[in-house]
Design a protein that fits this description.
By secondary structure, this protein is of the alpha/beta class. It folds into 3 domains: 3-126, NAD(P)-binding Rossmann-like Domain (Rossmann fold, 3-Layer(aba) Sandwich); 141-295, Dihydrodipicolinate Reductase, domain 2; 342-403, Alpha-Beta Plaits, CATH 3.30.70. It has helices at 13-24, 26-33, 63-67, 85-94, 104-121, 137-144, 159-170, 175-184, 193-196, 199-213, 232-240, 302-318, 375-384, 400-403, and strands at 3-9, 36-43, 58-60, 74-77, 98-101, 125-126, 150-156, 223-224, 244-254, 257-267, 280-287, 291-298, 342-347, 359-363, 368-373, 389-394. The strands form 2 sheets. Strands 7, 8, 9, 10, 11, 12, 13, 14, 15 and 16 form a 10-stranded mixed sheet that branches. The chain is elongated and about 75 Å long. The termini are far apart. Residues 136-314 form the Homoserine dehydrogenase catalytic domain. Pfam families: Homoserine_dh, NAD_binding_3.
Length: 410
């Protein structure tokens, strides 16, 4: 029986999960691929560290040793940072290897170049694990994009931020206390900036944009807000309105323009994100035929991420060159028309009489308000009072305050 020979770059949580899964699911690989899958090399930082790895596996700190192997079919990358990862994967493609990565920052910056290089060399790129861990959102989009026209993708793409917001609400904790708990559980790094300031979700959103629309927005135009401005007072005010804060990435195509944002929003219990708690991720896709579908599951960890990479291993081994990896829709189609007005929760002191263009719906506390306003009117308010915090409310038709008979404009 022929053998598919695999190298794993990195043997941390994810790399080890991939190795263990290949060992434990050998029969399943053979049944699906008709070939045996064998790990022949692993790149590590510390060659002296004890690891439970077969003796016939090449263990090395030098990637060039791996490239010199007489047969190498797939390189699975499970390390961090843009470099030397990008260089390693380019070299692997040049050798004629399929590549699989979980590195969302590197792939957001260099994914197009890797995909183009793979096309030139007749190999495939697997990158399911770059977005939403164990949720098969990329494979789902590949299937939807056969005929469906995707108009919008929204997602809770960072489990750390979602965990912090859940803990703040459920345990009545401060942001700082919830962050410390996330770090203690291993959800957040010692430096949590990428997670809590929205960079991690931003990189994932850019990857999804390229899959769904064949292009990305100008990165400088993407509104990116983290969750650090959300206080216990805001969480409590939202609860009074039966709303929950969620950190959501949104990408849509409107009049041939890609619109993207990563920011905290408020959702009611009719929204699929309302019940996505803890370190879970969820992705909602809106397309013209199937309508809205929501995928939910674990966003990180050894086996959820390993699962995505293992499915990619099957994908790249079964695929010849996949021409749909850089899809751009050419159909004459326009996205959804943006609503003229939205509902917002504001925090801060505002003189209502100076803003007649805004409808003031409710005063939740002395400094927290519900308003109805167009985005341009809101920008005008914020231009005059930049210290105000604001959060969009999704699912406004079910907002309790708007459905109360006693609701009045104040």
């Amino acid at each position: 029986m022929s053998v598919i020979k695999v190298a794993i770059l990195g043997f941390g949580t994810v790399g080890e999960g991939v190795y263990r899964t290949i060992q434990s699911h050998a029969q399943e690989f053979t049944a699906v691929l008709g070939k045996k899958v064998e790990v022949v090399a692993i790149l590590v930082k510390n060659i002296q560290k004890e690891r439970n790895i077969r003796e016939d596996v090449l263990l090395t700190t030098n990637f060039q040793e791996i490239l010199r192997l007489p047969q190498l079919d797939v390189v699975i990358e499970a390390i961090v940072d843009k470099e030397p990862t990008f260089t390693y994967l380019k070299q692997a493609i040049g050798k004629g290897c399929h590549i699989i990565t979980a590195n969302k920052e590197m792939f957001a910056h260099h994914g197009k170049e890797l995909l183009d290089l793979a096309k030139e060399n007749g190999v495939s790129v697997g990158y399911e694990a770059t977005v939403a861990g164990g949720i098969p959102v990329i494979q789902t989009l590949r299937q939807l994009l056969n005929i469906n026209r995707v108009s919008q993708i929204q997602g809770i793409l960072n489990g750390t931020s979602n965990f912090i917001l859940s803990e703040m609400r459920e345990k009545k904790q401060s942001f700082a206390e919830s962050l410390r708990q996330a770090q203690a559980k291993g959800y957040a790094e010692a430096d949590p900036t990428n997670d809590i300031e929205g960079f991690d979700a931003f990189y994932k959103a850019m990857i999804l944009s390229r899959i769904a629309f064949g292009e990305e927005p100008d990165w400088q135009t993407v509104e990116r807000q983290g969750i650090t401005a959300i206080t216990s007072e805001l969480i409590e005010a939202a609860e009074k309105l039966k709303l929950r804060f969620k950190h959501v990435a949104s990408i849509s195509k409107e009049d041939e323009q890609i619109i993207a944002s990563v920011k905290p929003i408020l959702v009611g219990d009719e929204n699929p994100f309302y019940h996505v708690e803890g370190a879970e991720n969820a992705v909602n896709v809106h397309s013209d035929i199937v309508g809205r579908i929501t995928l939910q599951g674990p966003g990180a960890g050894m086996y959820p991420t390993a699962s995505a990479m293992i499915e990619d291993l099957v994908y790249v081994c079964q695929s010849k060159l996949n021409s749909r990896q850089n899809i751009k829709k050419t159909a004459d189609w326009r996205g959804q028309i943006r609503k003229q007005k939205d509902y917002w929760l504001l925090q801060g002191f505002v003189e209502k009489t100076k803003h007649p263009e805004i409808t003031w719906l409710d005063e939740v506390t002395d400094s927290i308000f519900i308003i109805e306003a167009g985005k341009e009117d809101l920008k005008g308010l914020l231009g005059r009072q930049p210290e105000i915090c604001y959060f969009q409310i999704l699912g406004d038709e079910n907002l309790p305050i708007l459905n109360k008979p006693t609701a009045t404009v104040i």
